[in-house]
Prior knowledge:
By secondary structure, the protein is mainly beta. The chain has 2 domains: 14-114, Sandwich (Immunoglobulin-like); 118-213, Immunoglobulin-like (Sandwich). It is built from no helices and 19 strands. A 6-stranded mixed β-sheet has the order 2-10-9-4-5-6, with no helix packed on it. Strand 16 (163-169) and strand 17 form a beta hairpin.
Amino acid sequence: IFFFLPGLGFCYSIIQGPTNATVLAGSEARFNCTVSLDWVILIWLSNGSPVLTVTSAQGPVLGPSDRFTSQNYTSSNGFTLELIIHNTQLSDSGKIECSIQQFGESRFAFLSVQVNGSLFIKNSTLTVKENQTVEIVCEALGWAPAPDITWMANDSFIDKSSYVTQESQGSNGLHNALSILTLTPTDTEILTCLADIEALPNPQNATVAVIFDNSSI
C-alpha cells in the first residue's frame, strides 16, 4: 500500500529505527520506529512486503494479516510507532523495515524466530558395574536453529571430548541433534543433557540417574 500526498513541502525524518530481536515461535515480537512529530504516513515491511500502514490521521490501516498490529507513544522529541507481530512463525524471520514512503527514508532490523523443540534421554535410571563403560544418548527433535548441546555430571560440566553430537535437518526445516556421552562411572551421579538456543531464557534439560553398583557378582 503506497500513498502519495501532494503539496507536502516540509520534511520529516526517522529519528531512531528498530533493533534486532530474537524470539521463540508463537510469542510476540516488537519493533519500535521513532519519527519526528510532523510525520504523516509510515509503512512497516517484513522481508520487503508491506504488512502494516500507519497514518497520523487514521492510525493503523488494516494490512494483509491481523497478526500485525501497532501501538504508538508520543514524547517531546518524537513519535514512536511500535509494530507487534503476534504468534510469530519461522517464516517471519528476516528483515523488518519501517519506511516513510514520501521521502524514501527507511530503517531496518532483523528478526530471528526460533523453535524450542523436544529433548529426552530414553532411560531415567541406569545401573552400572565397576569398570563398565556406558553410552548415554540424548535426543533433541524439532529445533530451529539446531541447539547447542552440553552435558553435566551432578553440577559440573563434562569435557566436550567425552561426547559426540550429530545434527540433521528434517524436511520441515527444523533441526535434530543426537548427542552420545561415553563414560566409565566410578560413583552414583546425575547426568544432565542441556539444549540451548538464544531465545530460551534457560536451557532445556533432560536427566538420567546413573547408579553405581560396586557389589561383587
